[in-house]
């Protein structure tokens, strides 16, 4: 009897990490960051924008394209003495299939959102 490749392994349940993260400083307040994110969502035809009362925590889902399934994006802005620290997290939406190449695509998508946000707030 041949050992071969097992048909099931506990490692199959743990997919590689596909999340992308960025943290950076902008010279703008939390309202300006929230307004910039809202414009990114509207301009990119993204969906499911959620904004908390303080306008410091925002979430949205990117639209599906020929290259990507929908991705969940979270943006948090923390007021600092001069401006805000902004943190962006991006990953494949939980109800979408995962691909081994998603980590690379997510990192590129995150950089694009970061560039749009930094350009919008100056």
Average pLDDT level: 85
Q: Could you give the order of strands across the largest sheet?
A: 1-5-4-3-2
Describe the main β-sheet briefly.
Answer: 5 strands, antiparallel
> Radius of gyration over alpha carbons?
18 Å
Shape: globular
Strand content: 25-35%
Write the layout of secondary structure elements.
Elements: E1 20-26, H1 30-43, E2 47-51, E3 57-61, E4 71-79, E5 84-92, H2 102-121
Antiparallel strand pairs: 1-5, 2-3, 3-4, 4-5
Helix pairs in contact: 1-2
Describe this structure in words.
With 122 residues, the protein is an alpha+beta fold. The chain has helices spanning 30-43, 102-121; strands at residues 20-26, 47-51, 57-61, 71-79, 84-92. A five-stranded antiparallel beta sheet has the order 1-5-4-3-2, with helices on one face. α1 packs across α2 (102-121). It is globular. The protein starts with 19 loop residues before the first strand and ends with a helix.
């Amino acid at each position: 009897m041949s050992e071969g490749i097992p048909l099931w392994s506990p490692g199959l349940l743990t997919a590689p990490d596909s999340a992308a993260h960025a943290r950076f400083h902008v010279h703008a307040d939390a309202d300006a960051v929230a307004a910039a994110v809202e414009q990114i969502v509207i301009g990119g035809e993204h969906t499911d924008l959620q904004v908390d009362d303080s306008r410091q925590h925002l979430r949205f889902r990117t639209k599906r394209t020929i290259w990507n399934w929908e991705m969940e994006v979270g943006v948090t802005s923390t007021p600092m003495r001069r401006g805000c620290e902004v943190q962006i997290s991006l990953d494949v939406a939980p109800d979408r299939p995962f691909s081994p190449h998603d980590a690379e695509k997510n990192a590129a998508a995150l950089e694009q959102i970061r560039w749009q946000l930094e350009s919008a707030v100056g």
